[in-house]
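step: validate -> pass
step: tokenize input -> pass
step: predict -> running
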Amino acid sequence: MARKQTIDSDQILDAAETVLLSGGVHGFTLDAVAAQAGISKCGLVYRFPSKDLLIQTLLERELTRFSQEAEQQSVRYGSTPGAEILGHINAIGQETEETASRAIGLLTTLVHAPAMLAPVQTFYRMQLARLAQATPLTKRLRIAFLAAEGVFLLHGTGFAAISREERQSMLDDIGDEVRSAYSNLKTTDKPQGSIQTYTPSSPPFPPTPAVAWLSANGVNGVSLSAERRHARAAQIIATATQIIRRDGIAMLTHRAVAAEAGVPLGSTTYHFKSLDDLLNAVMREAIALFREDMFQWLNARRHDDPCEVLTQFILRGTTDIQDLAREYELFTAAISRPSLRPMALEWSNTVIALLKLVVPDNAALPLGTLMNCFFIRALLAQHEYPLTHRQIYPAIAALYHAFR
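step: predict -> pass
step: emit ->
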């Protein structure tokens, strides 16, 4: 039996790039790409059903490559003001003659087919949208961004013969303008709602009450360690959480997050290489929020009737069925995604540990399991058959007293 041929997407995109740059849009055919890639046309069409999709994916690959480089450069600046635009400027300076020539070649080849330039237009629209505020700072940053792009385009198109040394000197000057814009920044000019970024040398977060209590009781886990995230990573996680809460986990993709967050696709794949990496980060944030809420709830009622406390906790947790459904969707995803299982198990272990605030240690696991059953029942019944106090309290009480 013949071995099935593996068709690599990058192999196809490399071939498409070669055909497009050598023959232009008019010479760009699926037959030519298939021949260049050394595959059948059927195999090509299976991956890319149309020329437009193939060109769009080719452009997105190039934009993602640059966005990842810009993200990497900005991360190196840590908490330096203007890190994001400085990273963009540095990424332009890091472009080799080959990569710059290829990028410009793609753009100029498609200039007479504007409909195919949609990914590029989206990229620049998002970049400029971030600099749209009418403040003295953003105006100077916008000029710096456009100046850096001008250096890249003038050199790449050959409109101006600029040596590498001259080009770097110009980009350095533009970077100095960015730093100057921030150094002269008045307090009233500071962008509102911006997320602070941190460097690895920043002092650690003080432990929250829940983390302190769990650590003191010998509970360890990845979610307990304080982590300072880059601002962009935090933004991506928050957006991913919103998408899951609103549309469900099935609708979460790097592309969906990038579009909703208004960031380049390359930024999402730079911080989170795979969808599982992103889901783990979302789950980690969810554990932290749930942990603090549960700790405060139980700790404030630790001298009350434990059975009543747990009953009310269940009733409270089932008031918003949609939020509950999204939490359990993350758990069920771990069944088919092995990389999510450690974090999902840690979430479960955190619940069991926190129950020991109000119940005997040996009763925490059985009662946590029973509570889990009530939550699942609420999800299945939705609002048609809501759980009642009369259903929950006797079951909790019976199991609680069995372990006293």
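step: describe -> The chain has 19 helices and no strands.
step: cleanup -> pass
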